[in-house]
Amino acid sequence: MRTAPLCIPFLRTATITRPPYQEQFMRKHAQTAFAALSLLAGAASAQVGPDVVTARVGETIGGSDAISHYSSVAGEEAYSFATVSCNIGTATLAWYSSSHNHPVIAQNMFRLKDGRFEQLGQSFLKHGFCALSQTATDCGSCSPTNCDTLGLGCADTYGSGLNDGDSGGRKSDISPTDGFHNTKNFPTGGGNAGRLTVPTSEMGNPGAVYFIEGQYIAADDHAAGNAANNASWRKVQVNANYSLTGLTPTTIDPAIMGWQAEDAGVVVTEVQNVDEGGAGVHGYFYVGQRVTDNGDGTYTYSYAVQNLNSEAAGASFSVPVDPTAVIGNVWFTDVDYHSGEPYDNTDWSFTNTGGVAEWRSTTTEGTNPDGNALRWGTLYSFGFTADGGPVAGTANMDLYHGGGSLSTPIMGAGPGGGGGVIDDIYEDNDDCANAALLGAGNYNSLLVQQTDQDFYEIVLADGDTLDVHLDFTSANGDIDCYLYDTLGATCGDQSSYLVRGYTSTDDEDIQWVNNTGATQSYYLQVNLYASDPASDNAYDMDITVTSVPPPSDDIYEENDNCAQAAALTEGSYTGLIVKDTDEDFFTIDVPNGGTLDVHCDFSTSVADIDTYLYDATSPNCGGASGGDYLDRGFTGSDDEDMQWTNNTGSTQTYWIRVHIWNNDGPQNTYDLDLTITGGEIATAFCPGDGSAGACPCGNESALGAGEGCNSTLGFGAVLTANGSNSFAADDLSFTVTQARPSQPSLLVQGAVAVALPFKDGLLCMGNPTERIEVVFLDGSGSGTTTASIVTEGNIAGPGTTRFYQQWYRDPGGSPCLTGSNFSNGLEVTFQ
After folding, report:
1. Helix (H, G, I), strand (E, B) or coil at 712
2. What is the rounded distance in angstroms from the CA atom of residue 28 to the CA atom of residue 39?
3. Can you spell out the DSSP letters for 646-675?
4. Strands 436-438 and 454-460
5. Could you tell me the CA-to-CA distances from 528 to 422, 450, 505 in Å, in that order?
6. How far is CA 716 from CA 692, 701, 709, in A?
């Protein structure tokens, strides 16, 4: 590990407490009525300088899962997953593959089980090269640049295959605080070396929740002081065969925040090692804590510390414990290094003396620079059970490299048998202005006192119904609650309320419907009845928010005419609804030579449905009397069928119209089955002969040759398809010929066809784009892909159309002097 001296003479400490997950989520979304927002809600404001964030983890720009699961070796499962990065800053982000000025990508996995949040595995690092200027709603408006930089508002995708750690570099090669690296040591060993590996026994545990995390380390991003938002997490499901399926969208935050997302009782604090890498360049740690009342006079204390990017690393973690408290069931978990990483895996030791419970590395920087420290991109977990109730104190962490320590407020074990009145994690929420923002959920072990009321903010969309249930024992103190709709002088006055729970029995319930026509914040007051002799009482709170059900219609509305048609692929679509006042329109792409069969399944006893098929040449698509249709299903019996063969010479889009005949009924449900048979494997397009657009510097290839734009060889590269376009067979491969010999090349996939000058060639496919596979060309300039196109391209299923092109290096005086070029393009529609 490169352990450069710290840039300041003394380590300074600072802490920033992050609110519970519900509060973060609501703050980010309150002004949008919970609409579907950009995934960058947590980092919406552009930062000064370059600022890279991990916009998606284990998914593509289009939202499809992109997680690879490899064959188990020696009792371990291995994974890699796609990452999509965005530059949300104010300057381009360096992506120079020949120097340290390019990002590296780390991948991690975590588990929440029995109240413990633990890291299960980590991968070697993917070194970035050639940034794609992709357009994604996650990033904003893309200002594209060449592949040496990532432009403002632009995205870049690394598929799960390209992120595979088996060809990655060691984490110890990187200085994580400033992003500097000048070496790349590959993994050693066989099998799944370098990959994110997890013991099979740790996967699929009953009751466990699993998370994956992607993180970018980029030198100029860090130099600008923008490293705090570089990691993102996603909740995943472990399937029966130990493969992973995404369960949630990506959240831009370190994975420890996933613990808080699952448990509202978790508190996470950001701790900065200020100016660790120079002025404004901080090292970031995150400390999570959860105290659980076991109901038998004992409490479980669970802690986790995540080092996001500090090279100084952690040498210890300690929490206060009253000397009279009895503790037991002590645990510590770290994450193993593997595949040639030099770091030691010896567990930390534990001591409990002098009112301090401490876990500490068994080595120091002096005795072993590569000892087991809490290094960047890792999370260590700690905990115990005690007979003392939680009392506010301070946790401390010594640093492994450079000396110094950091601290943060924390709840530690109090005197044995309980430590008197304590408070809950939402303090200080003592008035409407300081109300804790909560969402729907269950909140346990709360405490209200005569001298300390509790206030909460709850945001409701228009039409939402709020139900609040307080669970308590009235004999221990009578609790009341009030709901207000305005943050101001009257909020909390117990007279300007909308509704209240005011009985003298156990529990209270209130309900309110937001009929304001807009998203609205409401404020809930919880207090002890003033005349009750009790000084405090504990309570649990259940918040339920019920949204207005959507109108009776299917998910493809509004698809009421040809211009609004919903795009479908080959497959079955059930439970669709058509109305006599609301026709349905769909599109489907069919490859050249392919035959489309449309089957509409319904009961004519409810209402008679007819179907029509159109193509782009139909000027009266969906018009009176059916319009200019190619085929129609027009019987008076159950079901309708249509068929059409595309003989146009290229992939074509067809429009399907579904409507109720002659007002035969107000509406009917139907199923739609779409099948495509036959057709070409791939259709060539976008040659570099000038017919699809001018090459960047007049370097057109011979007309009709089907090549890309000319390279230094005097002709262009040619891409061809092999195998079949069968989704199930997954035997499609691509071969490039006539490219520059003995150079690296890359198969790139896009979702739309374009023809734009880029480098020395034409960029033929557009966003969302994905890297599929690096192919090293032989002495004749040829090479063939071997990766699964279905897996690496995240192909959703039959009917999916994608566009392919081969990029290759062309150094030493290429025609346009950019050093790289592209082949022709190929269009593939999977069957």
Report:
1. coil
2. 11
3. --SSS-EEEEEEEEEGGG-SSEEEEEEEEE
4. parallel
5. 16, 6, 13
6. 14, 6, 5
**Quick check: 730 pLDDT over 70?**
yes
What is d(CA 390, CA 369) in angstroms, rounded to the nearest whole number? 36
CA atoms within 13 A on the CB side of 104: 31
| pTM of the predicted structure, to 2 decimals | 0.61
Q: Which residues pair with 235 in a beta bridge?
A: 211
Q: Are 93 and 128 in contact (CB under 8 A)?
A: no
Q: How far apart are CA 528 and CA 454, in angstroms?
A: 10
Kindly list the distances between the CA atom of residue 44 and the CA atoms of 39, 79, 90, 632, in Å, as whole numbers in the listed order.
Answer: 9, 30, 13, 49
Beta carbons of 110 and 295 less than 8 angstroms apart: no
Predicted confidence (pLDDT) at residue 782 exceeds the cutoff of 80: yes
Cα angle: 442, vertex 448, 449; to 5 degrees: 175
Cβ–Cβ < 8 Å for 65, 243: no
Most confident range, picked from 2-11, 260-269, 562-571: 260-269
Helix ranges (H only) for 668-707 are none
**Helix, coil or strand: residue 260:** helix
- Counting every residue, how long is the chain? 831
Question: pLDDT by residue (tens digit) across 121-143?
Answer: 999 999 998 888 888 888 888 98
Is residue 515 packed enough to be buried (19+ CB in 10 Å), middle (13-18) or exposed (0-12)? exposed
Name the percent of the chain in helix, strand, coil, to the closest 5. 5, 45, 50
Question: Which residues, including other chains, have CB under 8 Å from residue 257's CB and lie 6 or more apart?
Answer: 18, 21, 24, 233, 251, 268, 286
Task: Give the distance, in angstroms, between the CA of residue 565 and the centroid of all CA atoms in the same chain.
Answer: 29
- Least Cα distance to 222 among 93, 108, 125, 55 occurs for 93
C-alpha distances in Å from residue 494, one per residue of 30, 472, 485, 497, 529: 25, 20, 13, 6, 11
Distances (CA, A) of 497 to 483, 493, 710: 5, 8, 76
User: Can you tell me the mean pLDDT for 694-698?
Assistant: 95
CA dist 422 and 129 (Å) reads 53
- Closest listed residue to residue 307, CA positions, set 488, 108, 599: 108
Q: Is the dihedral of CA 488, 491, 493, 498 positive or negative?
A: positive
- Cα–Cα distance, 408 to 55 (Å, whole number): 29
Q: Which two tokens stand for residue 779?
A: 């002495």
pLDDT digits (tens, 9 = 90+) for 377-436: 999 999 999 998 888 889 999 999 999 999 988 888 877 754 444 567 788 899 999 999
**Cα(first)–Cα(last) distance of the chain, in Å?**
50
Q: Which amino acid is at 716?
A: G
Measure the CA angle with vertex 304, ends 303 and 308; round to 5°: 155
Residue 821 corresponds to which tokens in the numbers above?
């070029």
How far apart CA 449 and CA 133 sit, in angstroms, is: 56
